[in-house]
Structure formats: structure tokens, C-alpha cells
Amino acid sequence: MTERRMARRYDLSLPVNVRLPINREPGSHNGQTRDISTRGVYFTMHKELAPGTEVDFTLTLPAEITRGTEVFVRAHGRVVRVDKHRDEEHESIGVAAVIERYDIIRGESAHV
Predict the structure, then answer these.
(1) Range of the domain at 52
(2) pLDDT for 8-56, tens place per residue?
(3) Spatial separation of the C-alpha atoms in residues 18 and 74, rounded to whole Å
(4) In this structure, is residue 4 part of a structural domain?
(5) CA distance 38 to 45
(6) Which helix (H) or strand (E) holds 57?
(7) Are strands 91-106 and 40-45 parallel, antiparallel or unpaired?
(8) CA distance 78 to 85
(9) Do 13 and 60 contact (CB within 8 A), yes or no?
(10) Distances (CA, A) of 80 to 30, 65, 83, 84, 85
(11) What is the domain-level CATH number for residue 24?
(12) What's the number of domains the chain is made of?
């Protein structure tokens, strides 16, 4: 299989908070990233999303990674693939999303 990614992907397991802006669904859903690049992200969560769904999400890069203060990444994207994972105890949903735009906010100035 040929690698088609244009941006380097980093294996990072970080908490992610996901909102569905188009559906105006109240509240948010928590998940965990598996990997991320400047153009896309893969995360797992318990809510099933359909390909094409627009998502807003926020993740926090801890100070250990940024070598300074924690950094918040607020992004808007679109789901491109969904994978269902099941083990003996739970089911989780893997979501691959393309990032359409993002803002980076340093720790002191962020109000998430």
C-alpha cells in the first residue's frame, strides 16, 4: 500500500472534547486521540459519527510536549472514516477526520 499522507503524523494519546456544530446537539463528547497531524486526526470515542459529519474539537498539548505552557488546539473538521472496535467489555468508535481549520491558544490566554 502506498502512503498518501501529505503531513507527518504523530502518535499522541491526548484527551479530546468533540462537539457537533451542524446538529446543534447540546453538550460535548469526550474521546482520546491516537494520532494527529496538521491536516488530520484520529480519535476514539463512544458516540458514533457518520462520514461527512462536521465536528469541532479541542485538545490540550501538555507542557511536557510543548516545553513551556500547555497549548490548546481548537479545530474544525469533517469526518472521513469511522471504524467500530469491540472487545469483551466495550465498544468504541474510531474516527478519522480531516482538519479544515484550527487555532492554537497558549495556556494563559485560553478559556475552553
Answers:
(1) 10-108
(2) 888 999 999 999 886 667 789 999 999 999 899 999 999 889 999 999 9
(3) 10
(4) no
(5) 21
(6) strand 54-61
(7) antiparallel
(8) 20
(9) no
(10) 19, 27, 10, 14, 17
(11) 2.40.10.220
(12) 1
pTM listed for this prediction:
0.81
Give dist(CA 61, CA 2) in Å, integer.
30
Count other Cβ atoms within 10 Å, centred on residue 60.
Answer: 19
> In terms of DSSP H, where are the helices of 1-112?
63-66
Residue 2 belongs to a domain: no
What Å distances lie between residue 27 and 51, 65, 92, CA to CA? 20, 28, 19
CB contact at 8 A, 73 and 56: no
| Residue whose cell numbers read 472487545 | 87
SS3 content of the chain, % helix, strand, coil (to 5): 5, 55, 40
